[in-house]
Amino acid sequence: EMVMEPSLLILDEPTTGLDSASSSLLLKALRREALEGVNICMVLHQPSYTLFRMFDDIVFLAKGGLTAYHGPVKEVEEYFAGIGIPVPDRVNPPDHFIDILEGLEKPTSGVTVETLPVRWMLHNGYPVPPDMLHLADQIAAPSSDATNVTHTSKATDETSDQSFFVELWEDFKSNIRTQKDHIEAIFLRTKDLSDRKTPNVARQYRYFLGRVGKQQLREANLQAVDYLLLLVAGAILGTLTKVNDETFGSLGYTYTVISVSLLCKIAALRSFTTDKLQYWRESAAGISSLAHFLSKDTIDLFSTITKPVVYLSMFYYLSNPRSSFESNYIVLVCLVYCVTGMAYALAVFFQPSPAQLWSVLLPVVMTLIAKQNRDTAFMKILVQLCYPKWALEAFIIANAE
After folding, report:
1. What is the pLDDT of residue 210?
2. What residue ranges are annotated as transmembrane (predicted)?
């Protein structure tokens, strides 16, 4: 995660299981990253005073997830002291505030835990929700400070007078601001503080080519299984195929189109389904999608060239068709390249399980459609869109010639 130089880093209790020295080293490293332009947010339970002072801003949450304080660390003690919750001597401030918010300790000034979120709303001039107005009244009633009483009463009256249309207008403005932020995030570029130079497409292509090649070598067992299945399919279909002058072996070629399409599609799905999450992360970091796709397609070209040879090594010599080995090989290369591209699309747009289902279903359905009678204009157009039709015609023409 750190190598990608993210602009936002969210951590969940990073100091859990660490002693004070290790926790201090960790937060010093994170603070150094923050100075480089990385926004770092984390949840931390019971930090020491040294770790507490390392943060820029801090959030204290009351029960129910309501904000009791959100602001600079330097001002938190002053704020709580101003509302009657001072920090006792020789007590860690964050521990003391957390104990107050959890109800383990009661403030001596008469401040209740339930009113702390409302006090924060009034302190910042935020509107108080209708179901919490009674807490605002409790704050205003016993206050001895005339200024605070006036401010609280004024805020309460303003909140009470808010009509439905005012709230509707506020919601509308909030939605407009949210949509504006989304549009700016898409079309506007934020200032890059990392001083990182993104490699060009050619350099990224070379890097991805090496990475995908290593991945293929590590998956050599899967590749061997794919070739073995093609070899077995070629042997079985070559034995069952009967070539004669009337049919030119059309039935055997029909089975060939279905079996090769099915096996090659399922194998090609692995190119984009296994690392989809990794691609999303890398694309968010600014990699070139073109270089990523071309590298995988280039590596898969080896399979596109060799798989027809493996299949024909058994099918051709067992079925003994009239056409030459070269013509059958050319047709199968085009077929494998076509179904590989279709598998890419299925892997990108579908989850792994539906993509496998479509990879099995499409070759069978499209082959059946390609062999139907073309009685209507719709069927003529539909047959023209099916790749098995062109593959079968190429095989039959090669045999006829």
Report:
1. 92
2. 224-241, 253-272, 329-349, 355-370
Kindly give, in sequence order, each residue whose CB lies less than 8 Å from that of residue 226, ignoring residues fewer than 6 positions away.
263, 267, 303, 307
The whole-number pLDDT of residue 305 equals: 92
The predicted model scores a pTM of: 0.56
**What stretch of H or E contains 11?**
strand 8-12
The label of the residue with tokens 């023409």 reads 397
Round to whole Å and give the CA distance between 61 and 197.
Answer: 40
Identify the three-state secondary structure at position 43. strand
46 Ramachandran zone, left/alpha/beta (phi>0; psi -120 to 50): left
Instruction: Give 165-205 as a DSSP string.
Output: HHHHHHHHHHHHHHHHHHHHHHHSPPP--S-PPPP-HHHHH
Amino acid at 57: D
Give every CB contact of residue 295 below 8 A, 6+ residues apart in sequence.
205, 208, 209, 211, 212
Helical pair 387-400 and 250-273, crossing angle rounded to 10 deg:
140
Cβ atoms of 5 and 196 closer than 8 Å: yes
Which among 362, 351, 360 is positioned nearest to 274, based on CA atoms?
Answer: 351
Q: Residue 255 and residue 267: Cα distance in Å, rounded?
A: 18
* Residue 228 in this model has a pLDDT that exceeds 90: yes
Contact 209, 295 (CB under 8 A): yes
Terminal alpha carbon distance of the chain: 60
Report which residue type is found at 201.
V
DSSP 324-360: -HHHHHHHHHHHHHHHHHHHHHHHHHS-HHHHHHHHH
Residue 8 β-bridge partners? 39
Helix (H), strand (E), coil (C) string for 79-137: HHHHCCCCCCCCCCHHHHHHHHHHCCCCCCCCCCHHHHHHHHHHHHCCCCCHHHHHHHH
> What's the residue count for the chain?
401
Report d(CA 66, CA 123) in Å as an integer: 15
pLDDT at 337 over 90: yes
Q: Return d(Cα 311, Cα 314) in angstroms, integer.
A: 6
Q: How far is the C-alpha of 217 from the C-alpha of 212, rounded, in Å?
A: 9
